[in-house]
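Lab meeting, action items carried over

1. Structure of the two-component assembly. Owner: GW. Status: complete.
Input record:
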Amino acid sequence: MVEARKIHQIEGTFKMRNGHLEQPVVAYETWGELNFQRDNGILLFTGLSPSAHAASSEADPSTGWWEQMLGDSKPIDTTKYFVICVNSLGSCFGSTGPASVNPETREPYGLQFPVLTIEDIAHAGHEVVKSLGLTSLHAVVGASMGGMTSVAYSILYPDMAESLVSISGSPRATPFAISMRSLQREIIRSDPAWNHGNYDKDEEPVIGMRLARKLGMLTYRSAAELEKRFGRELIPDGRQTGEPFGIDFEVESYLEAHADKWIGTFDANCYLYLSRAMDLFDVADHGGSVEVGLSRIGARRALVIGAETDLLFPIEQQKQIADGLRDGQREVTFHALPSIQGHDAFLVDMDRFRPILCDFFNCSMNQPGKLRKVE
Amino acid sequence: MVEARKIHQIEGTFKMRNGHLEQPVVAYETWGELNFQRDNGILLFTGLSPSAHAASSEADPSTGWWEQMLGDSKPIDTTKYFVICVNSLGSCFGSTGPASVNPETREPYGLQFPVLTIEDIAHAGHEVVKSLGLTSLHAVVGASMGGMTSVAYSILYPDMAESLVSISGSPRATPFAISMRSLQREIIRSDPAWNHGNYDKDEEPVIGMRLARKLGMLTYRSAAELEKRFGRELIPDGRQTGEPFGIDFEVESYLEAHADKWIGTFDANCYLYLSRAMDLFDVADHGGSVEVGLSRIGARRALVIGAETDLLFPIEQQKQIADGLRDGQREVTFHALPSIQGHDAFLVDMDRFRPILCDFFNCSMNQPGKLRKVE
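Predicted assembly:
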C-alpha cells in the first residue's frame, strides 16, 4: 500500500518572521491528478487541530476531517481537481513543529521553536506547491485558522491562486477570541506537567489539555446548539461517578467525551504555538490597514462564508473580508449562514456548506434536492 | 463605631434540600429605618461574589458593590426604604458556608457542607427578615445569582413581597451557562492545591481560582465591549515579562489585573458550592414547568431587566420571566437594555440601569437629565 501522507523537505534555511528552521519538513496529502495544463490544483489549509488527512483515499481509507466535502463527485470534486492539503508548519502530524527534533540539538524544539505566524504556515504550504511543479492554483481554500492562512497566502502570493475560499475565517483575531485562546494557553501552562514546555511524551500535561479542549469546544459551538441538543437533561444515576462536583448534566458529559477523545492526540507545545499564531495574525500588517491588506489579494474570484452563531470568528469579520475583496473589483460570493453550530458549522452543517462549495466549484453532485437546502 | 455587618444566628436545625446545618449564621447589612407600619423593607440578594456590603454607611464608609444604586437620594432611596442585604448562605463573608467551622466536628465544613441550592439561600435570607420583625416586604431585589434568588424567594414566600425586581436573572441556567461554570469548577478542582477540598487558608488553590476568574470575566462581559475598550492593542515593551506565551495584548493584561484583584478574596469551596447552586436552580422544580413556577410568584408588581449582550443570563430568559409574570395578571415592567457590558452591565452601565430602578421605586433623584438616558 502507498503511504497517503507524503513529506516534503524544504531545502536549506526556512526563514520565519522571528527566526528560522533548518530543512523543516511539511506533511501533505493529495487527491486527484494534476492535469496537463497544471492549472487544476487546489491548496487546502486546515484549522488548528486537523492533520493533512482531509478525506479518505485508496492509500488511507480512514475517514478524513472533511470527508463529505472532498472526493469523487463531492463539492470539491477530486475527479476534476488535484487537491493538496498540508499539515500546518508548527503542528504535530508530520510537519516540523515544537514536538519535532531540532537537528542542531538533537532534542525536541520545545520552546526553542521560533514564534510561529500564519504567514509562516502559508509560506511552508507554498513550498509543497512548488515542489509538486505547480506555478498556479485553481484555488486556495481554508476554514478557521485555515481561513486566515488562505487569506495570508493570497496576499503573499497574489499571482498564484485564481480563487480564494475563506470559510469561518478572520482578517485578524478579535480581543474576545484572543482572550479565550490566551486562557486556554494559560490553562495548559498552569498544568505542572507542562514543566515550562519540557515534558516527556508519556507525561504530557493532560489535565491542562483536557480543560483547554473543553473551553475550546465552548467557543467552537453555540449556546443555541447546546440548548437544542442537551437542554438541562441530567445524566442518569447509573452514570454518576459519586465524585463531589462531578457531572450532573448531559452537556457536561458531552464536553467530557470530547476532552477524552482529544487527549493524547495533540502535542501541548504545538497547540500553544498554533493558538498564538492565530492571535498574532493581522491582515493590517500587510500595508497598514485591513482594507489595504485585503486589497493585495490577487484572486479574481472569492467565496467568503461563515455561520451567524460563530463566537470566535464572528460573521461581521466574514463580511469584512467579503467587503474588502469587493472593493478590489473581484467577483465575490458571500453567505452568512444561519447554522446553529457556531464556529464548527463548516465541519457539521453539511446541508448548508456543501451546496455553496459545490456551486463555487461547479460540481456535478447527483443530489440536487438535498444539496440546494440553503436558507 | 458600630459594626455595619450584623450576624443573625438561625436557631436549631436549618433544613436544606439535601441536608441540614446546625445553627448557621447569616451576615447582613441594613440601610435606612423600618417605618412604623413595617412595610418599607426591601430585601436584596447578591450575585455569586459580593458580600452584604452593597453600599457605604456611617458604620462602614467603604464603597459597596452597588454604591450608585443604593443610598440617600439614590434609585433605591434609603431615606425612604429599609434595605436589608444578606450575604448568601454558602458564601464566605460572614454567613455559614463551606469555609466555616462545622460545630459538630470543629473543622471547616469543606465538602461536608450539604449540596447548596438557591432555595436554601432564599430561606436563609428570610430568617433574617423574620428576625428583624418584618411580616411583609415592599420588594425583593436581586441581580445575577441574586436575580435567581429573588425569583425563588417570591415563589417560596408568595405573600411576603409586594414587588419583585429581577435583574439579569434567569428562571434556570442554560446549558451554555452550566458548561462555563462547570468548567470553572473543574479548573479549580484540577489545581493540586485544591486537594479534594482540604486546603489550608494560606495554601489556597490560587492558580485554579485565577484561571476560573478569568473565564468568569469572559462570560460576564461581551465581545463588543472588549473590542471597544481594547481592540488589538499590544502591551508596551516595558511591561513585557519575557515569559514565553506571556502577555501580548492589553486585553490579556486586563484579565490578569482582574484575576490579581480576585485572588485571596474568595474561598474556593464556597465558590464551587455557589456556582453549582446556580446550575441546579430551575423554576420548573416548583410545579413542573417554568410557567407554573413563575405563576406561583405572589408579587403584585414586577420589574424585569437585563442586557441584550448578556451571554450567561441571556435576554431571552429575562423576557421569559417577564412573560411568565404577565400571565399572572401582575403589573410587569420589562426592559431589554442595549448595554455592551454583557452580564455585568447592572454593575457598570449605571446610566441605563439607574433610571429604571429610580422609576420603579419612585425615587426623587435630582439629576433627571442624566438619569433619563435610556435607549
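2. GW to write a short summary for the group page. Key points so far: The two ends of chain B are 43 Å apart (CA to CA). Chain B touches chain A through 47 residues (CB under 8 Å).
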